[in-house]
Structures are given as C-alpha cells and as structure tokens.
Amino acid sequence: MTSRANVAAALFAVGVAVAALLQPAHVAAAAQDQAVKVGVSAGAHAEIMDEVRRVAATRGLALDVVVFDKPAAIDAALAAKRIDAASFEDEPAFDAQRKQHGYALTSVAPTVTFPIALYSRKLTSLGQLQRGATIAIPDDRDGAARALILLQNFTLLTFKDRAGLHATVRDITSNRLNLKIRQVPRARLFDSLNSVAVAVIDSDDATRAGLYPARDSLGLEDARSPYANVLTVRDSDRTQAWVAQLVAAYHSDDVAHFILTRYQDSVRRPW
After folding, report:
1. Which of 38, 58, 117, 271 could bond 217 through an S-S bridge, CB–CB 3.0 to 4.6 Å?
2. Neighbours of 237 (CB within 10 A)
3. What distance in Å separates the CA atoms of residue 150 and residue 220, rounded to the nearest whole number?
C-alpha cells in the first residue's frame, strides 16, 4: 500500500471513530430536546401549568401541557408512559389510586391546595357560633374526614388521634359547643346553608355555587393541608434531572405570584 493510501485509510479510521463517539452524544442531546409531557385537568391546574411551562422554558426545559377531559384517566396515562408527569389530584387520592391499581408512581412535590372552607348565611364570624348549632359536612367518607379535620383545626371538635385522615363522626371525643353534625350529600351542601349555621363545602362545589373561599368563607383550610395536590412521576423517573427542574419551575416566584394574583388565595400554595 502506498503512503498516500495509508494516510487515506488512517483518516477513514479516525472518521469512523469520531462518528462513533459523536453519535451517542447527538442521540442524548436529541432525547433532552424532547418536551416533558405533563398531564393536568382543565381549569386551575391547566392555567397554572401554562405559567410553569413559561418559566421552565426560560430555564431550558420544554414542557408540553396535556389537558385531560377525564381526570380519572391521568394516573393510568402516566403509568402507561403516555405522559411523563401529572398534576391534578391531592395526596390521599393519589395514594388510593396507586394502591388500588398497583401503579409504580410517586409524588415529588406539593403543587396547590384547593381549600375546603366554612360557609354561612347566618354568621359573619365563627365567634358567633351558638351552642347546639348545626354544622353540615359532606356525607362521603373522604369528604367527611376532611371536614372533621378542618373543624378540629378551628378547635370546634377533637377526635381520636388514630383516626387521622379516616376520621368519622364516631371518632369525635370532644365537642365543646355540643354542635350537631349533619352529614349531607355534596350536591345539597350549598342549599343546606338555608337551614344550618355553617356548612363545610369543598372548593369545586363552592365555586360552582358562586362562592369563593378567600372572599366568602368564615375559615379556610390551611395551605399545608394533608390534602394538598401533588406533582407525580413514575418511580423510575424520580431522579431524572428534568424532575428537579420541573419542581423548581413550579415553585418559582413567578408561579407563586401568578397563583396569588389569579386566584386571590382561593387556590393556595403549600410551598
């Protein structure tokens, strides 16, 4: 082989080696360029995630916000890898879905709290609550427990410590005003305001009835409630760099400002 041929062969070999080295980097770069798909329900979750998307983009993370008409389908879509993350449900609801279906999913950060609250047409403050007054709470198990926790937080009731997030009226151990607790179907809680002193109504039902927690309630659930909503991902993705970036974008000052100005504390942030 001539020296010129040797040089050509050597250059070809070097080119192949360089191409081999560059290809994985190119593939990795392409993978990083893929937008992270975040599943959300319509309404506040979608609006907030749009702001998160804007903030994340300025930090080099592309998000694709996927709005689901049926929130019940979001966990399944995340488990099936049709989306990469989700933001739509509270921690207890997420835990229940994960256990029921065996999903390998995990929560990585709190997002927002949609507070249940105390409403009244007869009182302007809880200090006016009379002994023996009637308080209406949801009649479903989860709603009742959440309402009882709120009443305990306002020192109106106490119940067995072991009851926790599963408290029922049977777990009440102290009722200093001898309040009557009436369990009412959620759809009738707003109408019950005509006959009870106070009703505990969740954020969605209150908003549909024209009530806004921060403006119209006698007392709000704390932002750091155990019922705060969560950002979720697959177990296998928990340590991926984009997860930390997504959380940081969500917990940014810009998003905090958006939540406060858009919802006036009727949607609360637990971070």
Report:
1. 117
2. 17
3. 8
99 lies in some domain: yes
Domain encompassing residue 148: 117-220
Report pLDDT digits (tens) over 68-93: 999 999 999 999 999 999 999 999 99
Neighbouring residues of 140: CB distance < 8 A, sequence distance ≥ 6: 186
* Assigned token pair, 96: 């229940």
CATH of the domain at 185: 3.40.190.10
Query: Do 50 and 65 meet the contact criterion of CB atoms below 8 Å apart?
Result: yes
Averaged pLDDT in 10-residue chunks for the chain of 271 residues: 43 40 37 84 98 99 98 98 99 98 99 99 98 98 97 96 93 98 98 98 94 96 97 99 99 98 96 96
Please give the tally of structural domains in the chain: 2
Q: Which residue has the tokens 């082989």?
A: 1
Half-sphere CA count of 142, side-chain side, radius 13 A:
11
Whether the Cβ atoms of residue 267 and residue 131 lie closer than 8 Å to each other: no
The answer to whether 158 and 150 have CB atoms below 8 angstroms apart is: no
